[in-house]
Write a structure and sequence with these properties.
heterodimer; A: alpha/beta; 5-stranded parallel beta sheet; 5-stranded mixed beta sheet; B: alpha/beta; Rossmann fold; 5 helices; 5 strands
């Protein structure tokens, strides 16, 4: 809001415009007036007022219509309705259009002052919060780019040097040196994966990914993922089973994000399993939803840890999990993605027996 | 062909050093430019057998503009370009499942950073061998 607040008065009665003008002008506001809705709309676009006083009963465009248009132009403009017939119905109708307050004709100069002062105070807060919101977003985005540039590039360079040494381009390398370089490289990969996961996580905001929603056949994604994870399952001697419902249930969603969510869940089922174990993926349709269950016969999660598994960076620390590397972001990412699709994810687990994740996603409307 | 000459254009000294040492180990003669302007200076001095170009240079994708200019210059259009992309590394943004390299400017081959030495050598060899048969395409 500029130093001097701008107030627009839209009323077809000259006497109302003039009296408002006199009162508010004395208080040092910049005043604009309009005699009807169309004229008011022009002035709103040109003068960008902080507060608009709108008469509900005007020839031409009605006050209600004007309120709707104000809301479209800038929802932070505070509007106050002037009405000669303040009934509950008009009050409700106007409030639905985000009107801030009322002035019932006839009103006194003091009533007008109180209502405008309060309205402008509100405007100030609204603008302030919008500014803070913008700043917060900028900080977040800067941070994302800082992480991607400043952390990743040096790591990538370190890795590149290691590869060149490993492959003997700078001279002979002994077997034991090679092995150490391989290990160093694996740690760098782990770090890069952590950074990538964290970046993915920051980017998965419901508002962002919804723009790319399309019909996605869940069973197709699940089959694809199972195919991709087959080699991993085989090396760990885990068998993958699927029980899909008939028909091609589709959700409205972002294919790649959903794939990532289910990949995280399935690979957890493989990693935290026992040799010779099973991961079963099943899908069923019910009440306009698709339920996907991913069950493993693995090590399970204790009741006290179960509360934390969707927390960022949380990892169960036990003898069985020590050999599995991970960032502690797989489940939080999956949860975020499912929730961005208006879905839910639940988990039941028994230590030593296995874990089942149940995902509910709303079916796409045809 | 005796010692093929390769021009590396990349503003990242670490990658330049690494790429250079890989190529020199295989008897390539390597010259280096750290930005597009230097790249054109080098090209005025001599025409290399291939260019290795990083697209994410300077403030943005300076390499894109560089590649486009080369392909529009009749004297340079036939030099094969191997593009190094680190789109994902640099920006963190990529579209899963889609080729990293958007086909909106004509280059001959591309590989993604970090590079595997053998892949780099294979690609360079393929570019230099195929140069005589490949018609320079423009968009």
């Amino acid at each position: 809001m500029a130093e001097q607040a701008t107030i627009l008065i839209v009323d077809d009665e000259k006497v109302v415009r003039d009296s408002c003008y006199r009162v508010l002008n004395k208080d040092g506001y910049r005043i604009e007036t309009a005699t009807n809705g169309d004229n008011g709309l022009q002035k709103i676009r040109k003068a960008k007022p902080d507060l608009v006083l709108v008469d509900l009963m005007m020839p031409g465009m009605s006050g209600m219509e004007l309120l709707e248009k104000i809301e479209e132009i800038d929802p932070n403009i505070v509007s106050v309705v002037i009405t000669g017939y303040a009934t509950i119905e008009t009050a409700v109708a106007a409030m639905k259009r985000h009107t801030y307050d009322f002035l019932q004709k006839p009103f006194t100069p003091d009533q007008l002052r109180i209502v405008t002062d309060r309205g402008l105070e509100r405007r100030k807060l609204a603008l302030q919060s919008a500014r803070l919101q913008r700043e917060k977003e900028m900080i977040r985005e800067n941070f994302i780019s800082l992480v991607s540039h400043q952390l990743r590039s040096p790591l990538a360079s370190v890795k590149q040097y290691l590869v060149v040494i490993r492959d003997g381009f700078t001279g002979d390398v002994s077997a034991s040196q090679k092995e150490m370089i391989r290990k160093a490289g694996a740690y760098i990969d782990q770090l890069l994966k952590l950074i990538n996961d964290w970046l993915d996580m920051s980017r998965i905001e419901a508002a962002n990914i919804k723009e790319e929603f399309e019909p996605v056949a869940i069973d197709d994604i699940l089959s694809e993922i199972m195919e991709l994870l087959k080699p991993l399952a085989e090396t760990r001697k885990i068998s993958l089973e699927k029980h899909f419902c008939d028909g091609v249930a589709e959700v409205h969603g972002n294919r790649e994000n959903l794939k990532q969510a289910f990949t995280n869940l399935l690979s957890n089922g493989i990693h935290y399993n026992k040799e010779g174990g099973t991961v079963t993926v099943s899908s069923t349709e019910q009440n306009g939803c698709i339920e996907v269950d991913i069950s493993d016969t693995g090590i399970g999660i204790s009741q006290e840890n179960l509360h934390f598994i969707f927390d960022e960076f949380f990892r169960v620390n036990s003898k069985e999990t020590r050999s599995v590397t991970g960032s502690g972001l797989g489940l939080p990412i999956a949860k975020r993605i499912i929730e961005a699709h208006d879905g839910t994810i639940k988990v039941v687990s028994e230590l030593g027996k296995g874990t089942t994740f149940s995902i509910l996603l709303p079916k796409a409307k045809r | 062909m005796n010692t093929p000459r390769i021009l590396i254009i990349d503003d990242d000294p670490a990658f330049v050093e690494v790429t250079k040492s890989i190529l020199e180990s295989k008897q390539y003669s390597v010259s280096v430019a750290h930005n597009a302007d230097e790249g054109f200076d080098r090209l005025n001095e001599e025409i290399p057998d291939a260019i290795i170009l990083d697209i994410m240079m300077g403030k943005g994708a300076e390499g894109f503009i560089f590649a486009r200019k080369i392909k529009k210059n009749p004297r340079l259009a036939k030099i094969p370009i191997l593009v190094l992309t680190s789109m994902r590394e640099q920006t963190g943004f990529f579209i899963p499942g889609e080729p990293i390299h958007p086909k909106f400017f004509p280059v001959d081959r591309y590989i993604e950073k970090p590079i595997e030495p053998q892949v780099l050598l294979d690609e360079i060899e393929r570019l230099i061998d195929g140069r005589s048969t490949d018609a320079a395409n423009t968009c």
